[in-house]
Amino acid sequence: MENFVDETTRQATRQWTLAQPAVSAFISSVVRDFRDRDDVLQNVAVAVVESFHAYDSNSPFIPWALGIARRQVGLYWRRRGRDPLVFDDDAVACLAIAFHEEAQTRSAKFDFLQDCLGSFDGRAKKLLGLRYRDDMKPAAIASETGMTANSVAKALQRIRDQLRACIERKSLEASVP
Q1: Which family is it part of (predicted)?
Q2: All domains of the chain in start order, with CATH
């Protein structure tokens, strides 16, 4: 079977997949009706793919996508007419900036998570793989490893606590100039 997706569309889709949670959260913050939110988000996705040729790959993608979302939200509000809770353009711009900054923080924490996961070996690495890669529950992991379900659950909790502490430590180290 032929592949009908060109490389540009593939790249746009990859970038959109990473940006979509931040864009969706931004839209949700300024559009109250959930059906309208879905419509606006869909319009943003289409606009991102259609205008991806204009995207400068040397620039961060999320702010670019949020810019398109700002324009789509503006179009939505103009089509909808007057609403007593409509944000002005400056408020929408501030929200877009805040969502971009939050997305950057989450992206950095994901990078820290990858680093922290690399520090585990042996039993901890096996337990993490069984739980999160293979999506096994503690009882199934217990059968696989010869541990009790309770000891698996406790070990996973300790590992998650260690991961959280590692991510927080790396975040603090990164924020110190």
Answers
A1: Belongs to the sigma-70 factor family. ECF subfamily.
A2: 1-109 (no CATH), 118-177 (1.10.10)
